[in-house]
């Protein structure tokens, strides 16, 4: 039976619309349920949820938006910004390396 599946080739990837992804993340954030529970409800993988949360979950704040007044809110925002900065730097470094590899050939 495993050989039959191997002969068919890899399973096609499921494609989800951006609207679906955003609605799943909104549901996750508002429900207070775990990622595993939400993933099971919507029939997606937990790692999909985590990727979508990173992509669509962070609420975009305008540059000239209000500054948090409480020290806790300020510390939370600083922590979020540090995580985002680390992620963006890693993406940048990966792009730099791939551009270097592509330019060599």
Give the termini separation. Answer: 42 Å
What is the typical, i.e. mean, pLDDT? 81
| Order of helix and strand elements from N to C terminus | HHHHH
Strand content is: under 5%
CATH class of the largest domain: Mainly Alpha
Helix content: over 70%
Strand-pairing-aware structural class? mainly alpha
Count of domain modules: 2
C-alpha geometry: flat
- Biggest β-sheet strands, sense, barrel: none
The CATH architecture category of the largest domain equals Orthogonal Bundle
Q: In terms of quaternary structure, what is this?
A: single chain
Secondary structure tally, helices: 5
Cα-atom radius of gyration = 19 Å
CATH topology of the largest domain: Arc Repressor Mutant, subunit A
Give me the count of strands.
Answer: 0
Low-confidence stretches: none
Write the layout of secondary structure elements.
Layout (H helix, E strand, L loop, with lengths): L1 H7 L9 H14 L3 H8 L3 H12 L13 H34 L1
Helix pairs in contact: 2-4, 3-4
Quick rundown:
The chain has five helices and no strands.
Fold and architecture overview:
- With 105 residues, the protein is mainly alpha-helical.
- The mean pLDDT is 81.
- It has 5 helices and no strands.
What features would you highlight for this structure?
2 domains, 105 residues, Arc Repressor Mutant, subunit A, mainly alpha, 71% helix
């Amino acid at each position: 039976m495993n050989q039959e599946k191997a002969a068919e080739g890899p399973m096609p990837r499921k494609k989800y619309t951006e609207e679906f992804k955003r609605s799943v993340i909104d549901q996750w954030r508002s429900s207070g349920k775990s990622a595993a529970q939400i993933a099971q409800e919507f029939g997606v993988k937990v790692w999909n949820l985590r990727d979508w949360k990173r992509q669509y979950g962070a609420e975009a704040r305008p540059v000239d938006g209000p500054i948090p007044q409480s020290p806790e809110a300020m510390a939370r925002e600083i922590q979020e910004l540090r995580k985002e900065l680390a992620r963006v730097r890693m993406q940048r470094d990966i792009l730099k390396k791939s551009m270097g590899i592509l330019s060599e050939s």
